[in-house]
Amino acid sequence: MTNLFRGFQRNVAPLCLILMGLLLAVGCGPSATTDGTGLIVVGEFASLTGKEANFGQSSHKGTELAVDEINAAGGVLGRKLLLKTEDNQSKPGESATVVRKLINRDGAVAILGEVASGRSLEAAPICQTNKIPMISPSSTNPKVTQVGDYIFRVCFIDPFQGTVMARFARTTLKASKVALLTDVAAPYSMGLADFFKQGFAAAGGTILSEQKFSSGDKDFKAQLTALKSENPEAIFVPCYYNEAALIVRQARELGITVPFFGGDGWEAPELLSIGGKALEGCFYSTHYTSESSIPAVKNFVKKFQDRYKEVPDAMAALGYDSAYVLADAMKRAGSADPTKVREALAATKDFDGVTGKTIMDKDRNATKPAVILAIKNGKFEYVETISP
């Protein structure tokens, strides 16, 4: 019996070594090289198609530009970054699916995305469970980073944005009575509306009424008719660009002439192509302006225009910054290990990007100023910058 067992050991041992070698090879992922200087896989998920495709496409272009620049400058820790991008098609549920793939199949050590808060909220628990750092370029709902200590963002959050727009309505628009039209299907819209109402009331303003709709709606005339009867001095519409443009256009058809204003969800060229002249005299808050005279911004705008033949919007700028913030954290960590990168991200202070300095607070949110843009003569025009 003993001799038989020893024979079994002699035969099985080499097989075990072979299996262990295969497992190690698989674990290194498809981008690894035999000399141990493999590529660092970074995952990105974005709405490249679907109703909010402009958000994802802009953010992706900024991210892609940054990664290519980082690699051209020698990469990170002597290794190149490999950006793996997945399209969630602007659909509920898809973000969770593609982020699982990026982590479990592609071996991503960090995740960049998403623009829309609702889709970031789908992905964040998966990144947190797997202890993979996730950086949202521009999801502003506070709940995103509340998921856990592996979740970060490089943009301001809605408590600040809501206060900014409340202050803007009271001081710049001189409005004392406003109404709201809110998307109940979007966490971004509901959250921003709540913070605006709090800020506006604190500033001595009155909310006359609030009408509701759901993402994807096309007809807003019933809600707008109800708002018109209240005689507001301005109307706050904290939603995404597709619905915002349709709302303002239909409002003008009903004879509503007061200013409409919104948050960074309005930031897209499609806002103008859908809304047209109806948007003249409207305003929204965002994260940067391409008209800035700051050398770093001018350089970014030129490189982006040279490559993509278009002016980069705030989503492109934030995508660009998110990739550089990640690369900076990896360099400071001296490693691409997700846990060490997480620690370095949490310690980010005074990182100069094209959307301003990124300073991570204790809740992993970036403290940054907001920019107000007006729509005049069919273009976005800089109005003012409001600091925290």
- Residues in helix, %: 40-55%
Strand arrangement within the widest β-sheet reads 7-6-8-9-10-13-14
Order of helices and strands: HEHEHEHEHEHEHEHEHEHEHHHEEEE
Output the CATH homologous superfamily of the largest domain: Response regulator
Q: Which CATH class of the largest domain applies here?
A: Alpha Beta
Write the layout of secondary structure elements.
Elements: H1 2-27, E1 40-46, H2 53-72, E2 81-87, H3 94-104, E3 110-112, H4 117-129, E4 134-136, H5 143-146, E5 151-153, H6 158-171, E6 177-183, H7 187-202, E7 206-213, H8 221-228, E8 234-236, H9 241-253, E9 260-262, H10 269-275, E10 283-286, H11 295-308, H12 314-333, H13 338-346, E11 351-353, E12 356-358, E13 370-376, E14 379-386
Parallel strand pairs: 1-2, 1-3, 3-4, 4-5, 6-7, 6-8, 8-9, 9-10
Antiparallel strand pairs: 10-13, 11-12, 13-14
